[in-house]
Amino acid sequence: MLLIALIGAVLAFIWQEINLHTLVSIQSENLQTIPTADDASYLAPPLNFLENGEWADNSEGISRYFQRPPGYGFIYLLSYLTLGENAFMGLKFIQWLSYLLSIILFYKILEHFQISTKKTIVFTSIFALLPIYSGFMYYTLTEGISPFLLLESMYAFFKKKSTLLLVSTILLLLVRPQLIIFPLLCLVFSIVQKEKRQITILLIAFLPLIIWNIRTTFIAKEWMGIHPIYSDKNISLFRPGHEALTKLFKIWEYDGERFHTIIGSTCSAQNQDEIELLNTHIPKQFQTDVFPLLLQFNQLYQREDYGKSEDFLQTEREFVQTVNHTYSKLLRKNLTTNYIVTPFLSAKYLLTKSQLNLYIFQKTFRGSWWMEILRICCVALINLGFIACLFILFQPIKIEWKLIALACLIYLFYLSFFQRMNEERYLVPLLPILLLMVSMIRVKSVRFTFIKNL
């Protein structure tokens, strides 16, 4: 186990270093980590907290106080307090160590459920050697640590390790609250099994997230939901107008990058011709209704008093009403698109991505025969994981695994049906769990009553 973990961690380190040095040579910039657009909202709050005691990013508006949950910021703060200007090096080490420990946890979980030694070694080796499981190790994103936290939380739940369960679940919920379905189902199982200690631990673990949301509600003076980025007090893109357009686009759009490109370019467009060109990226049956809204949004965003005057606020409210009216009209005409086609395309978008996110895999080595084989194998393995979740629901297997399989399927449904416009990285926390699901499948023991009932 330790040998596999060490080999996997060293190999992941090598891939990440090659990728980082490739980016440095291309960008001619001294990079310690791989920067993203989310760095400002994740890393600024802990630095501002040290400087002036205020947990907030540097944007303008009320959502600067709670745009991101504080878990990842706490981890960065710990690294900064320890290493100062070398905080990014510390963050990389934490995420590297988390991956090494993940391999050990993966092995221990299989061992706990008495999977054969040969099978345990094979699947742990797959987890250690495939780069999709360590792809975000050098990114300053929650995906660098959330897979470990989810795996650790599940391990602690299975092994009934109270302290570890408490700490890992608290961190998981503060780093990636959208994964709450996993501890929730664990809580349901504990209640059914009358595991009083587990129930108490899990209920306590929810408290920090509840306190964070109470703080958010107190500051905003309203419930902000699980994605608290929109407010009419923001001087940024994330105002009610953008929120209304997001809701409208979700009728047909499943590609988040395309949506943000259209809206971002609409804001900066200098004439009607540019907006007409952007409108061509929208399905034809919606273009006539959406084009006037893009024109209005362009005019709204470019106002000098954007978000600052009562006249602007009134104009924005009228714009939101117009967008909502259009949404209701298009929804009535496109029920099948909204409730079936778009969620299907959203799921397809997620399930056809290899999760080989590093630049060297996407650009440098792309087209190589071994790279394409690796890409196909990774896509197949991810899809096999969700298929395994379905099979496990109807297999004679421990109820704990049925709950975890159900949690994976619910999370995929949430991303596909409700969130819709996703980035492929949103599946990253599930990847170790999906591989565990595959390892649990016993083909010969699948019950055929399910097929007969169908």
Task: Summarize this structure briefly.
The chain has 454 residues and is mainly α. The protein has helices spanning 2-27, 39-52, 71-83, 87-112, 117-129, 146-159, 162-175, 181-192, 196-220, 240-249, 256-268, 272-279, 284-301, 310-333, 335-351, 359-364, 369-392, 399-419, 431-440, 449-453.
Description:
It is a single chain. The chain has 454 residues and is mostly helical. The protein has helices at 2-27, 39-52, 71-83, 87-112, 117-129, 146-159, 162-175, 181-192, 196-220, 240-249, 256-268, 272-279, 284-301, 310-333, 335-351, 359-364, 369-392, 399-419, 431-440, 449-453. Helix 3 crosses helix 4 and helix 5 (117-129) runs antiparallel to helix 19 (431-440). The chain is globular, with a radius of gyration of 23 Å. Residues 445-452 have low confidence and may be disordered.
List the helices and strands and how they pair.
Layout: H1 2-27, H2 39-52, H3 71-83, H4 87-112, H5 117-129, H6 146-159, H7 162-175, H8 181-192, H9 196-220, H10 240-249, H11 256-268, H12 272-279, H13 284-301, H14 310-333, H15 335-351, H16 359-364, H17 369-392, H18 399-419, H19 431-440, H20 449-453
Helix pairs in contact: 1-4, 1-5, 2-3, 3-4, 4-5, 4-6, 5-19, 6-7, 7-9, 8-9, 8-18, 10-14, 11-13, 12-13, 13-14, 15-18, 17-18, 17-19
